[in-house]
Amino acid sequence: MRYPQLLIYESDGRLAELFRRQCAQEKARRFALREPRGQESCLRLLRRGGPSVLVLKAGKDLVREMTLLERVTWLCPEAAVMVVGDAENAVLAEVAWELGASFVLFPPLPREWLTAIVDGFLTRHDWGKRPTSAEPSDEALLPGDTKGD
Hints:
alpha/beta; five-stranded parallel sheet; single chain; Rossmann fold
């Protein structure tokens, strides 16, 4: 089995720094941290197989970022993809869910949750299956039938 890998696709390095600090505090690395700069290198790393999480920061070049999200969900369905944004944007979050994101983290949700969420995806035991989306189902959002008949 391959060593778990975390890929961070962003332009400013802030998310990668968050994970570097976590690794330094824990004094143990449970995953390989990679920062691919291009879509093809990102896909090449994910195609190697094994437990993989792609953290995709959205907001700078939406067409490119959402295209990568769609390509990863189609070409590497076993990889978990988390889309992270800096500003509250319900429309962009919905697009990310629709394109197959495993988790979407936009304000008002705190960015500090990201490391724990990634750890959860990297340590699950059912690799090889498509990760279950964390998006709530329609049944959880809609009240039940309240008719009395």
